[in-house]
Amino acid sequence: MHCLLIEDEAETANTIVTALSGVGISATQAGSGAEAMALFAARGWDVIILDRLLPGSRDGLSLLTSLRQSGDVTPVLILSALASLDERVRGLDSGADDYLTKPFALEELLARLHALGRRAPRGDDGIRLEMADLTLDLRTRRVSRGDVLIPLQPREFRLLEYLVRHRDQVVTRSMLLDAVWDVAVDPQVIDVQISRLRHKVDKGFSPAVIHTLRGIGYMARIEV
Fold it and tell me: What CA–CA distances, in Å, run from 202 to 104, 115, 126, 169, 174?
């Protein structure tokens, strides 16, 4: 696993790099937003650890927003001393896959990184999934309908990928919970995520691809 660590505190960065090296994870460290921007495109990262508070004009959320707007869906773990519920939600809504507050235990950091790594794409280089004019590129993690690129957050991409891989099959909330979240969440969270995904993927396009089966679950299908 190759990790990009964006952390300006030298002591914290050195501690993390040493811990990662001890479990076979190579890490490249950036101490500012400017350094991070230069490194984003330097190589394909398996995971990014991003400090929320960085010096200069580019803070962590600004960097994350730029990354997601470019279509990059590399898993991102935010580190932050901002521990309130509102701040954690803000970080996740900005496109982070996980949020760990400081101070933290290295064992927990490593466990969360391995969990993100298990959810990353494996061996799908060059493979595309298609339904009607909907295309999912599993190498670049980009989604389009016809010539229109549809920006998705990482979890939205995983949701859509799972639905399309199981096209014409009933997909229950528990199936999505196991495949996409890995942790217990309120079933209403899944409904909200599906609603947002449908708005992005189906609104303004025809035919609709994502369908709700009331009281049962969801299905990706093309209605003729």
Answer: 41, 30, 25, 18, 23
pLDDT at residue 123 in the model: 46
* Residue appearing with tokens 């009281």: 215
DSSP output for 64-77 = HHHHHHTT----EE
Q: Where in the chain is the domain with CATH 3.40.50.2300?
A: 2-119
- The tens digit of pLDDT for each residue in 67-96 reads 888 777 788 999 999 989 888 888 888 888
Q: Which fold has domain 128-220?
A: Arc Repressor Mutant, subunit A (1.10.10)
Q: What is the DSSP string of 111-122?
A: HHHHHHHHHS--
In this prediction, residue 42 carries a pLDDT of 65
In CATH terms, the fold of domain 2-119 is Rossmann fold (3.40.50)
Q: How far is CA 90 from the centre of its chain?
A: 14
pTM of full prediction above 0.85: no
Reduce the DSSP state of residue 197 to 3 states and report it: helix
173-180 long-range contacts (CB < 8 A, ≥24 apart) are 173/217, 175/217, 176/217, 176/218, 180/155
CA-based R_g, the chain, Å: 18
Nearby residues of 113 by Cβ (< 8 Å), 6 or more positions away: 1, 3, 20, 25, 47, 49, 77
